[in-house]
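In keeping with the milestone schedule agreed at the kick-off meeting, the structural modelling team has produced records for the first pair of proteins. Each record is given below as a sequence line and a structure-token line. The laboratory manager (R.T.) confirmed that both were archived under the project's standard naming scheme.
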Amino acid sequence: MKNVTDSFVSLGHWPSAGSFGFNTDILATNPINLSVVLGVLIFFGKGVLNDLLDNRKQRILSTIRNSEELRRGAIEQLERARARLQKVEMEADEYRMNGYSEIEREKVNLINATSYSLEQLENYKNETLHFEQQRTINQVRQEVFQQALQGALRTLSSCLNSELHFRTISANIGILGAMEEITD
């Protein structure tokens, strides 16, 4: 340590002229060199360092501002997308409900049309059955009447003479005519 303080003290008495030489004592010259280099760096480098730091600070602030603007833009886009999604979901629900309503309406219409068709078919069936019953009844009546008439004619032919026979046929024809008018 004594060498270091001696080197500072020896600065005061440099030989005024004489020889020029190098001080090879590293411990004595190193702190002086370092202090000179640091002094020069601080004096001249301070402005450059401040400029570099200011530029860096401005770039960082600019990047932060840009990031904030991008963030705000992204938030706005997100809000618009959410609003659009909500609108689309509402429209989809409306279409779904309208579709269900339309399906229900079509189902009711189909059921009503089928019910009406079945009712019509039932009516046609009943009319056809009634018609067939009446036709069958009329055929059976005619057959029974024909058989009764033929049986009566055979009985009368064997029992009666021709004049009585003629009057009986005329009376039966009159009865038959009256029955036909009743059935029509």
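The second protein of the pair:
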Amino acid sequence: MGKAKKAPKFAVMKKMVTSKAIKQHKEEVLNPNKKDLTKEKLPRNVPNVSSALFFKHNTALGPPYRILVDTNFINFSIQNKLDLEKGMMDCLYAKCTPCITDCVMAELEKLGQKYRVALRIAKDPRFERLPCTHKGTYADDCIVERVNQVPGVPIMYITQHKYSIERLPEATIGGAPRF
């Protein structure tokens, strides 16, 4: 068997060594510690972010935790037979104060008899009541507005009949999932 013939390469040029490239190479070899001045003159664009945010986690958050609760969170807690305050304490290993806004209370009252258990839980004196200044009773916009005021706020949700936290530096404590 013979050797396979290679096809000719079209439009290939040999790399030309210029005098400028030779000078740069000599400078790099002779002065390896010399800093590149062109890189130093460039302005640095550093965003103004809180130093408490570390990998998008807010490390400034600490106990006692104030947890903003919405209508669905209360309803799913009832469906999963979870005590809100006890479940939150088991998840975070710290004292927790559930907070509820006026618009969430109004939303629960509007839902009627089917959600009377959720309304009775929301009226618990252990819950901190937060006043709302906006018009209407749409709770989602109010909660999103409040949460966006503090960057890096973790979100609590229910998985496997227990509370879990996402976006927390110690994401493996409590019932949080392990990624």
